[in-house]
Write a structure and sequence with these properties.
Blueprint: E1 5-8, E2 40-45, H1 51-67, E3 70-75, H2 80-92, E4 97-100, H3 109-117, E5 122-125, E6 139-142, H4 145-159, E7 167-173, H5 179-192, E8 198-205, H6 210-223, E9 229-232, H7 235-247, E10 257-262, H8 265-272, E11 278-281, H9 287-298, E12 306-309, E13 313-314, H10 316-322
Parallel strand pairs: 2-3, 2-4, 4-5, 5-6, 6-12, 7-8, 7-9, 9-10, 10-11
Antiparallel strand pairs: 1-12, 11-13
Helix pairs in contact: 1-9, 4-5, 6-7, 8-10
Bound molecules: alpha-L-arabinofuranose.
């Protein structure tokens, strides 16, 4: 399937011209050695919590290599303090650009200000921060998570058109305080609020992991005998929940309808097998666009303040058709 990335220039926001960055000193610990002309990019990744994240890391590492950009990569293991430490270390090492996917939305102003004072431009990838000072970063590339939640809600509303009985929904939220958890909850909630038959009877974080998705779903099933629908903020939690549902002697996709977000291979397989009913896509392949932005920002070119990833949705039939060519 063809995918394109659209560049959206948010109204009133212009990328600031760049000051010179410390490109002459990549500091210690550089993989390719100091003194090279390569752009040095420090990237702080959220962790390795999901299939999506693994594909995203690979996309970033492969694209950096392809573009001839020297990548300093760190895994924050889903902890904000680790990301802050990594960013401070990149500042100390005088990398040319810092990029990161913020584990949560709040609490970044101080470290972003430190990067700005050191004249190191910052690019946000995948997830947003809630800083009101948008001069603290150059651009933000990633999905529209509210829109993803809306797409999940739209499918549910269509699926239950003409039915009047109450629909009991349980929700597995992503990491507490993260942009995708906040926004996917909101988008979905806004759509289903229009019809009082939809009731979210339980909603809890599963931290975007399969293990936690299973554990929380087991608790949901014990406390609520009449669950009609599961909305999981990612495939991995949905896949964990499927194990819990089967363990409880129920049929996922039939006794309990399941909607997830991401469309990674394992999720798409479960969709094709009839265990998931609908998946909203969230593309992890941000690497090529990120490297393009890194080069432009480093060259002092104007970049859009917001780059939105274009994504689709999948039914069970569509999953069967695209599975053989799915990249991740
Ligand atoms: O930020 C993107 C989200 O993070 C993905 O949907 C999820 O799988 C990941 O862990």
């Amino acid at each position: 399937m063809l995918r394109k990335i659209s560049m959206v220039i948010a109204a009133g926001l212009l990328a600031a011209p760049l000051a010179a960055c410390g490109g002459d000193d990549s500091g210690s610990g550089s993989d390719s050695g100091s003194g090279s002309d390569k752009i040095v990019l420090g990237f702080s990744q959220v962790g390795a919590e999901s299939g999506w994240r693994t594909a995203n890391t690979k996309s970033i590492q492969d694209s950096a290599k392809e573009a001839g950009i020297e990548l300093k990569f760190s895994d924050a293991q889903q902890k904000q303090e680790n990301q802050i430490k990594a960013i401070r270390s990149y500042i100390q090492q005088k990398v040319d650009i810092i990029a990161f996917s913020p584990v949560v939305e709040s609490g970044w102003d101080t470290v972003l200000k430190e990067a700005k004072d050191a004249k190191i431009p910052v690019i946000l990838t995948d997830r947003a921060v809630d800083s009101t000072d948008t001069s603290l970063y150059k651009t933000f590339i990633g999905s529209d998570f509210v829109e993803e939640g809306k797409k999940a809600g739209d499918w549910l509303v269509k699926e239950y058109t003409g039915k009047t009985e109450t629909v009991n929904i349980v929700e597995l939220q992503g990491t507490t305080g993260s942009a995708p958890a906040n926004d996917r909850k909101k988008g979905f909630g806004d759509v289903i609020a229009a019809d009082p038959k939809f009731k979210v009877i339980a909603s809890q974080t599963g931290d975007f992991t399969r293990a936690k998705g299973k554990e929380v779903m087991e608790a949901f099933l014990k406390a609520n005998p009449d669950i009609d629908v599961l909305y999981a903020h990612n495939d991995d939690m949905g896949l964990g929940a499927i194990e819990a549902i089967e363990g409880a002697g129920k049929k996922p996709g039939v006794d309990i309808k399941i909607i997830t977000v991401d469309a990674v291979k394992d999720g798409m397989q479960a969709l094709a097998d009839g265990k998931i009913n609908y998946i909203v896509e969230c593309s992890p392949l941000l690497g090529p666009q990120l490297m393009d932005l890194v080069e432009k920002v480093h060259a002092g070119e104007t970049v859009p303040a917001r780059v939105v990833t274009e994504e689709t949705t999948f039914t069970q039939e569509q999953a069967k058709a695209v599975l053989p060519s799915r990249q991740y």
